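Q&A log
Question type: sequence-to-structure
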Amino acid sequence: MEIDWLTIFVGIIALCSVFVTVVIIMIGIYTLKTMQQLSEFTAHVQNELSFLSTKAVLTLHEVNELLGHLKEETRSLSDKSKLSLIELHNLISFLHDETKTLALKASNGIAKVTIGSLLIGALSQILKKKNNP
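Response status: OK
Response body:
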């Protein structure tokens, strides 16, 4: 009688072990899929941020050059117009500098996202090695 109870008890433990193993494997597979999607999203975000920051810097640089050229062309304008043009030029220069700062911050953000992506990739590799005996 005691052997029957022992057999039932060992069987229940074996079933629980199989269930826990299946759950761990399913979590690992879901984690790997999520990490792959996150890596693709990170690459897309990096490309978009690089493009936008580069485009903003180039556009403001061109506007700044245009205003500098207009400033030289309008020497015969009244003093009031000249002051307005100088103020506009200074404002565009300020915006140009701020955009450069924003581009640098975006680059730093891209670097952080890249580091996070590499960390997630390393974690993925560790989980793959643990799931494959």
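Response note: The radius of gyration is 31 Å.
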